[in-house]
Write a structure and sequence with these properties.
118 residues
């Protein structure tokens, strides 16, 4: 029984020496220390944070400009500009809609590439 106890104490000593000057109660990014109802400190893993979906946002923007460029290539830039000019903005939301649907350099570039392919 004393051999297993000595082995356990050796392992605990190695853990403490590996941690160096770090405190056991110092909070880190992977653990949450909670005081239980019985008075014991319970260490639980912290739930992983969900990062902002940058790849989804980029894919959404690429799809938006591709669809807008395909419409411009199909209708023609003059017709597309004329149709967007017919939209009369009255509210702030409609101003945003007209600004969004207006011709921009990225959509014009996509429309030129699609016209050259087809």
């Amino acid at each position: 029984m004393s051999d297993s106890y000595n082995e356990f104490q050796d392992r605990v000593a190695r853990i403490y020496s590996a941690q160096g000057n770090k405190s056991l109660l110092r909070k880190n990014t992977r653990a949450v220390y909670v005081q239980g109802q019985d008075g014991y400190t319970v260490i639980r893993g912290r739930e992983p944070r969900r990062p902002f979906p940058w790849s989804g946002l980029v894919l959404l923007l690429v799809a938006f400009f591709m669809v807008k460029g395909a419409i411009m290539a199909n209708m023609g830039p003059e017709f597309y500009t004329r149709e967007v000019a017919q939209l009369e903005p009255t509210t702030v939301l409609e101003h945003f809609r007209v600004w969004t649907m207006g011709a921009d350099p990225v959509s014009s570039w996509v429309a030129q590439i699609l016209k050259s392919l087809g």
